[in-house]
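Q: I'm teaching a short session on how sequence maps to structure, and I want students to see two examples side by side rather than one. Could you give me a first protein with its sequence written out and its structure tokens following it? Keep the formatting plain so it prints cleanly on a handout.
A: Of course. Example one:
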Amino acid sequence: MTQSVLHTALERFQALDEKISHLESISGLLSWDQKVIAPKKGRAQFSKAYGALQTEIFKLMISQEMGELLDQLSESNEHFDTVTQAKIRLRKHFYNRSKRIPSDLYKEYSVLCSDANDAWEEAREKNDYSLFLPYLEKIVEIKKVFVEYYGYEKHPYDALLDEFEPGLTVEVLDPLFASLREKSIALLNKIKATSHKTPVEIVKQPFTIEKQKEFNRYMLPQLGFDLDAGRLDETVHPFAQTVNTGDVRITTRYLEDNVLSALFGTIHEAGHGIYEQQISSKLEGTVLCSGTSFGIHESQSRFLENMVGRCEAFWQYFLPKLKEFFPTQLHKVELQQFYEAINTVHPSFIRVEADELTYNLHIMLRYEIEKELFEGKLEVSELPAVWNKKMEEFLGIVPPTNTLGVLQDVHWSFGGFGYFPSYSLGNLYAAQLLKTMKKELTEFDQYLENGHLQPIMSWLKEKIHQHGSLYTPNELIVSVTGEQLNAAHLVEYLEEKYSRVYQL
């Protein structure tokens, strides 16, 4: 291939990549609108419009032009810079996975998922699984077809994992989760056996929602979330949505009798938002302008929520600020008491409100259910009963309603099978990054004590955020920490933390 032909092919590819990225930006805005502010009566028609847009984006991504360009450019990959090579890698990965999926089927699936979100919200509100059941059955049916189009070597669930954490397989994940589950349950049993009780009643009081909102808006810029490049809204299930690096939208949910829900939900979503805001502007308008994987993305939100937000040093600075907003509830509360209260270990029904230790058990429960669904061992109609059975097995509790059980998560309504393991992977990545960060930022605790998070966010920007999807998850974690993903770091972190909290 001559240089002239190669140059023309590259220009066409760059233009196509940019067009798709811009359309996805618009699609992201529409998705946010539907979940946050769209009137209910217009949502059915909205779903059709959204499905049409998603289908056009999909057609471009698997078009004949895209395939031909990827073939041409892949032959001369060594002539390109790192950024161009990464663009080709990501576009080719999606193309090879999805090129056999008929566009009509993809459109049907997109409209279905948009409608399913509304059905899920209603079912959750009314505690009526039957309202969501037909949508979920159809989603699973189509996802099983997709899995066959994607292809897999050993397990059908591998094709779903690959969408969120490229290269991850059941063969790798099963022993990783088995080890983490064993050690988590052992630590949980130690905590149950101790006589030490944390003053959890501190956070069980009524906290005015308006004041919670005020504190969150005060706290976000302190964390590093740029409100001039983002916004905070309310929704049924907290999420983050990127329109572009200068427009990153996060949401939270407020409960008057559970101040921790919005507090840590907001910190969590801020972790996602800061990641997206700090991606290099050079990657804007390309396939690389997003987090490299869902596991790495969750590492940023789980790190900020737990390893910063539930750290005693963090509250040495922020507790006096919180007391200014809630003097009646907190004026007599000491730092150690508050630290123990927000780190109380107690098996709970809701994943997003779970403590750090039992959180991973919630993920493993969903992982086991999803595997069984795609192995053909489980029907969608059986999910509520199986969910409750596994909750009792994993956490020793049974949800009294489906709203507190199988209907609590939004993920299945958008077909996000394979997503849940990313949360526990995020915990694993985060613990490994924390260990490296503390070696390099020796004043880590002092920064938190002074409410000075800028050095921490700058470190994350340099090591993780600015690169977007330039590197694979494994390349990134090895380059930053010097080793492959190692579960021992999370186990060590949890044992050290809870031994202190519970005086083990």
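Q: Perfect. Now a second example for contrast.
A: Example two:
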Amino acid sequence: MKVSVSYLQAIGYALLGFSVWVGCDVCMKLAGQSRLPIHQFGFLSSLTAVVLFLLIAALRGRLSLMKPNRIKWEIFRGLLRVAYIFSAVVIFTHLPLTTVYSAGFLGPMIISILAAVFLREPLSLRQVLAILAGFAGVLIAVNPSAADLTGGSALGYVLLPAGVLLFSGGLFMLRFMAASETDESMVFFPQMVMVAAMLPVCLWHFEPMELKQCLYVMAFGVFSVAGWLCMNIAYRHAPAAIVSPFHYSIIITGAILGYLFWGDVPTWNLVAGSAVIIAAGIYIGRIAHQAQAARAVGETG
């Protein structure tokens, strides 16, 4: 029997999914601070996710849907994930969660630019102005003039733009490949690429792990799969225009967990900059939704 999920329930699943993914980042930060080698973290966390995902797919009778149709593009997307994990571990290890998230909110704007370049989707003047406002918001939030550029923080700030670009590129690839791939293959295959890419490195160099490091790795894999399951339900039962804005809830969850684990207190410039970025992102999403609705009316009219 098909279960009915209301829009309100879908929003609840989205909020839970985004919150769980913040848990992934907390585990990543804790693993980095415990000096767990990045290749080990990437391999074991992805292996945990792969095993768990296989079990869930087998129970749901959906194993056949995990085979990709465009394997070259899936491999490329998996390699993007490998590069992102390497940069993200360093970034989250040395920077507060809220700082990373404020920069990561540029994702929807970067995707709009990528769509204009590669998918020939037009950008209106309003969208361009909103994108520029979003970039300005990041400068306000990160406040480069006051950034601590000593020790690992410097490396974190250097890698932050690369991490945002890799994350946005991965999201753009989801949009690019959504028509030809199943949800299962788009979640499962990049994890397999990570396992395959890191296995030779782990065979060459593998450090003994403490119990807490094992817990960080396993929790990351579990949170990753749980977040995907929640988001899959949310996007399957509610339009993206309703679900997507709740992505910005991670700044609140990140601020709470950042304070509880590391005593990080968001600065006023970070709050103000995040508000500008969120407003710009929601505005861009609203414009895109209006354009999509207008096209649908034109096609049916």
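Q: What should students look for in example two?
A: Point them to this: The mean pLDDT is 85. Also worth mentioning: The chain has one domain: 7-300.
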